[in-house]
Each structure stands twice: as structure tokens, then as C-alpha cells.
Amino acid sequence: MSIAAPVVVAGTGIYLPETVVSNNDLASVIDTSDEWIVGHTGIRERRWLEPGRAVSDMCAEAADLALEAASLTPASVDVIIVATYTSDEPLRSTALMVKERLGAHRALVLDVTHAACVNGLHAMLLGCCLLQDSSIGSVLVLAADAASRVTDPQERTTRILFGDAAAAVVLRRGTQAGSGLLSWDFGSELSHAVEIPAGGSSLPPSAATLHARQHYVAMDGPAVWDAATRWLPDSILGAMARAGLPVTDVSHFFVHQANLNIIKAAMGKLGIPMSRVPVTVDKLGNTGSAGVFTALHHSCSHGLLRPGDIYVLSAIGAGFQWGTLCFRHA
Q1: Nearest partner of 312 among 230, 229, 256, judged by Cα
Q2: What domains are defined for the chain?
Q3: pLDDT at 1 over 60
Q4: Residue 59 bears catalytic tag
Q5: Which of 159, 233, 241, 328 is least enclosed by beta carbons within 10 angstroms?
Q6: Of the listed 286, 297, 326, 329, which one is catalytic?
Q7: What number is the average pLDDT over the span 192-211?
Q8: Residues 256, 297, 300, 326: which is the catalytic one?
Q9: Non-local CB neighbours of 51 within 8 Å, separated by 6+ positions
């Protein structure tokens, strides 16, 4: 499908839980250290969602801020898409929960799951496609995860990496030709390198799966490194080729906020200086679906995106699935 009608980012917002978890906090309960975590990941602290709160709560908080930034009321939102792999429940739509909380009574609700850190990019592309229908004027994309709920408190490989956050983006149809979404590139490669093995139809919950701790995220770190440092640069180049632009024209790279060393390696392959790459992983950890959007919000809220700027959103998630969107800022 071609994106004929310009689609622009009209507003952004984020929600961060109040609880800050430092590397030293983690080192007091698992076998790790601040020096090891910083050296291997660049992460210094992360936020964890408080007990009694859920992903839908974070989404609603972020949505309020994005809608305010876009001068849009909940009642006028046409579509709400929630991108998360840590839904409030296995069955009932998290997007529907957010819709009811916001009072967005006319909105179509959709949930995008199972691709982890690339969920939000799938949701953004879906939103841009929906806005090609003249009956749809606004799409609220919410990307959020509470990974602290699905990482094993006894296992240091994943426990140190993840934080919780929600990010919101309001998409609207633009009026300026040549602005908005210019191109995209998506790909996939089936892998078990990142997974939650139990809880689905192939391995239903049981006393045995609970005892084996198979309801937590399992990760093969070296495989993730290899995939991310290979596919992120390739996907960015693919999207830029489809846009008919050189990668040097990109002013802002909002990329997978999983590990600072991965970001540096991927950008190094492209010859991109880190001054063009906003970083939030050091303060937030890997926030899953929300990651790239925390970086986008930082630049939007600080007025760093200027009309005509080219920027990309690029991430890789479980599966593996990866993707890049290329925008021209209106």
C-alpha cells in the first residue's frame, strides 16, 4: 500500500513509573555490579512499575500528554492502537481498557503484540495506513511494556536490562506534500533467541512450567547482539533506499534502545555520529515497545525536530522481527 496522504506526528508523550532501580539496587540481590552493567549495556538505572498498576495505566497517562500536545480531545480520537508484549491480561484488549479510561468512545481499538521492541513500529505503520481512509482523521499509538513483570528476579542476564515505560504518539493526516511517512523496511527471521516459552497453546501453564520458571523472558545475548548489529543498519539502509535518499540526509536516528553498545555498533556500521542518535537506555533501560518512542519524545519535547528534518525509527524485537520507518518532519 502506498502512503499518498501525508501522515504527521502531531503530538507525543511518555509516562515513567516513579520507582527508580539503580544498578547498585540490583547488585544487592543478584550477582552483578554497577561496573559490569554499565560496561556491558550502558544502563545506569531503570524504572519499574509499582505493584497494583498495569500497562493500561501507563498508556493512559502517556496518552493524556500526547493528546494535549496535539490539541486533541479523547472524544475525537478515531483509532487507538496499543503495542505491547506485556498486556494487562492474556484475554481482554488492553487498547479497550485504555479507550474506556480515556473516554475515547468512538475509537476503533487494536492491539499489536508478540514482536516486543518492534511492536510500536508495526503500530505506527498500521496507523499511517489507516489514515489513508478519509473517514479516519487521528490515530493514537501507544507503545508500552512492563518487562519487570516478566523477567526472572533470580536471573541476571535479563533482570538488569529491562525497564518499564509507556510512550504515546498522535498521528494525523497532514497537508504538506512530501512530509510525513516517506518509506519503510520490515523483515523477519524465526528464532528462539528471545522468548517466553510457556503460557501459550504449545506449552500451557502447569506446575511443571512454573517450577521451571518458563513464564519469564529467556534470552540468548550473543544471538541478539549479532541480529541487532546486522539487521538494524541493513533495515535503515533499506528504508532510505526506498525513500530515494542517502542515509547522510537523516538528522535524527531514533533507534532500538536496548543496549548502548548495540546502538554504537549499529551506527558505527553506518558511519553515523552518536550526536544524531538520542539515547534514553542509560536512564530507562530497555523499555521494549516504548524504547524508540522515548527517544522520539525527548527530541519532540525539546524542540529538536525542525520542519523538513528527515528522521528514522528503527528497532528489532523478538522473533526476530525488525523494521524502520522514515519520516520527513512537517
Answers
A1: 256
A2: 7-173 (3.40.47.10), 180-328 (3.40.47.10)
A3: no
A4: no
A5: 241
A6: 286
A7: 97
A8: 256
A9: none
